[in-house]
Amino acid sequence: MSTTITVTGMTCEHCEGRVEDALAGVSGVTDATADRESDSATVEGDADVDTLVAAVEDVGYDASA
What we know:
This is Heavy metal transporter. The chain has helices spanning 13-24, 49-58, and strands at 2-8, 29-35, 40-45, 62-64.
């Protein structure tokens, strides 16, 4: 299953990497891709969307489903 969340505050590749790493650490995630130009992150797997949002917020970015 693919889930896309809105992520704001990413300004560079390093930011994208931090968001991807945070999402990849969530149980059930098989792949995560962040895109600063579209202010979004797409996640493959069966993780709960609220858990994904919390993981992104924990590393300092604003996120919403």
